[in-house]
Design a protein that fits this description.
six-stranded antiparallel sheet, alpha+beta, elongated, Arc Repressor Mutant, subunit A
Length: 239
Amino acid sequence: MKEHQGDMPHYLQIKDQLQARITRGALQAGDKLPSERELCAIFSTTRVTIRESLAQLEATGAIYRADRRGWFVTPERLWLDPTQNTNFHRLCQEQGRTPRTALLSGEKTTVPLDVMQPLALEPFDQVYLLRRVRYADGRAICYCENHCLPQRVPELLSHDLNGSLTEVYQQHYSLIYSNMHLSFYPTALPYRAANALGAMVGLPALLLRRLNYDQHGRILDFDIEYWRHDSLRIEVDTL
């Protein structure tokens, strides 16, 4: 392969060829790409060039890197309509995916400063802080911190929190998620989220901050979610 095709750098030519293979279905969701050494041989180039090509594909969300296992074709993104009242497990199941939630830690602690105002709390008030990871088809795609109000859900930590928090609220407290205030914007994965997702610190991510209300219009909890940038798309239908 020539180093340039017109004015296009070599690494972009390789990136486009790999993208074309994914688009045509020669490489499908979940497939592992050839190793970097094999790609160097296929495209007659250096590892530096191959890594730049792969980084470009990763930035578009076409592929992702799994620690010590190589590069893989990214599954189709989950789509989320923020105007619909749903939960992660139901969202996955409705789209033919297999969900799983794993509790990393749960504790009763002083409310963090950045969620004190949304929850209408005072300094040194207590919250339940749950740190959890959400999986779709076995792939970790979302790191979530749930800040729950002890006065609304007493003894929350005594329940199994490795599944749907929505179901725990309904079954044990007769509380139902109703309305919410949601903000979302691009960011970079901080250390804790990256470590939980098995990703590199600083990779692009979508940050969701959600204040949830129950069926009585009372504040229920506040969520901070870091989604892999290649795992979610936001769609809103106002028809």
